[in-house]
Amino acid sequence: MKTLKLLSLLSFAFLLTAFSSQPISEGYKVGDIATDFSLENIDGKMVSLSDYKDAKGFIVIFTCNTCPYAVAYEDRIIALDKKYASKGYPVIAIMPNDPEVQPGDSMEAMKTRAKAKGFTFPYLMDEGQNIYPQYGATKTPHVYLLQKTKKGNEVKYIGAIDDNYKDANAVTERYVENAVDALLNGKEIETTETRAIGCTIKVKR
Fold first, then answer.
1. Around 187, how many Cα atoms within 13 Å sit in the side-chain half-sphere?
2. End-to-end CA separation in angstroms for the chain
3. Residue 95: which of 87, 82, 104 has the closest Cα?
């Protein structure tokens, strides 16, 4: 009798969970295949990963104009693109904030910032904020290293650029560089995930 009662309670709990709760997407994990996107660049053109026929992969970075952490990393993001774009791993920067909530991240502000800093990579707006949730990005900056495979763009690393946002000269672990170097040399990535340090992505409440 007790067993039947317990089974009934468990069945009820299962049904309640199945029909009353929605699954929460946490974004990509290492090993997942990232779907492509089409987002507007600061030059007015739409950019997709499929545009890069000769790329071996991508350093996708969710970043913005207004976050102090993102600003602190700008020169390092530029350096990553200069070092790895010619080797097949270009930087693709995506601005995920809602510009109505964060006016300093409008398309015009993005154009101004990119020109002032001399960005050598696409700086795309996630209009409608549809892409960053797919990835699971929560901070600016937040990095997703992708590698082209037969299956598609496979996520190989997620997290921070390095271990010291305050001082580039004090960095001891260059997570993204180490990961890209490993891929280029056909080796396993030692650290595949770290905690992204930065500002929360701004959305309407």
1. 9
2. 49
3. 104
